[in-house]
Amino acid sequence: MDFEKQYFIFTSLENILLTIALSLIIIMTVFGNLLVMVALCKDRHLRKKKTNYFIVSLAFADLLVALVVMPFAAIELTTGVWKYGEIFCLVRTSLDVLLTTASILHLCCIALDRYYAICCQPLVYRHKMTPLRVAVMLGGCWLIPTFISFLPIMQSWNAIGIEDIVKRRISPGGSNETSCVFLVNRPYALICSTVAFYVPLALMVLAYQRIYVTAMSHVRQIETLQRAGALFPEPAPVANSRMRVETKAAKTLAIIMGCFCLCWAPFFITNVVDPFIHYSVPWQLWTAWLWLGYINSGLNPFLYAFLNRAFRRAFLVILCCGDERFVRQRSFSYGPTHRVCSPTSVNGTSMPQECGVKWE
């Protein structure tokens, strides 16, 4: 097997199109995540909800991915050469692993927060999600990734046993041109992938599965009462509004999980498989899976903030230069809305145990 990296030569037109596409991805990721952070800083109502601290910390991690990681990856991809030296290559790679893992761990914490808010009683949620526990969870999202990024990568633990392969990949064909290569041995691949993806994925699936079941159970209860012609404690428009919100919330959860798996599963499956098939995965496939994962950092603001009515209102205020008259006009144009104040409405999602912001 020839382990040397064969660079694909882009034509001038292809290089221009690739540069434009990568630049748009970076700009949209920066804009979306920066907007989320500014919204939380300017809107005191957003700062009152614990879930939003996870969202803004997630936005900060994704913003750093776009500012620190993506540009260097784009430059290397379009030029085919790494020009910044071996040490900075290790630093860039460590930041890549740290920030993308932190982003994924934030998604896991958001899922757990919503599980406690939706599937538990209000007092249980307040007991579980205290400000101290939120701070500990946020600290863990940033601390845990350092144990699979800077610590092993700067010590080259990920390359133990595969040093010769790494050297051949860094300078293919013995040329003077170098590339920033990140190959991992089997132990590192298994440990890193488990911590960064498979454990968070399992927790997210369990949390969102319970949330989905709870939401659909409430929808069926409402439909049953309506078909039976039972005396409903609330006006019909409110009941119909609740059913629409809960149905949409369930669909939103499916979209969130679908996007997360679509963006990151190909990379982490390949990351585990590649060391066991003698590092024969083509670099073009690696690059495609890696950028698909980066795109998740651009999608997160839309999935976790833009679907939230309170965030949308804050975005309109920011984009309209603080003119709330336009925001009020937009709000009235939606028609009358109802606050769902039942045991099925949720903190930042669509169903808290207390009156709150609905996702719709």
TrEMBL record:
Q: Which GO terms describe its molecular function?
A: G protein-coupled serotonin receptor activity
One cellular component term (GO) for this entry is: endosome membrane
Q: Which residues belong to any copy of the G-protein coupled receptors family 1 profile domain?
A: 32-304
Q: Does the keyword Transmembrane apply?
A: yes
- Mark the transmembrane ranges: 16-41, 53-75, 95-113, 134-154, 188-208, 252-269, 289-307
Assembly state and interactors? Interacts (via C-terminus 330-346 AA) with GRK5; this interaction is promoted by 5-HT (serotonin).
| UniProt name for this protein | 5-hydroxytryptamine receptor 4
Species? Hippocampus comes (Tiger tail seahorse)
